[in-house]
Amino acid sequence: MRYMLLMHAPSGTGDYQHSTWDPADWRVHLDYWRRLNGELTRSGELVGVEALTAPREARVVRAGRSGAPAVTDGPFPEAKEFLAGYWIVDVDRAERAYEIAARASAAPGPGGAPLAIPIEVRQVMRAPAADA
Question: Model's pTM, two decimal places?
Answer without folding.
Answer: 0.82
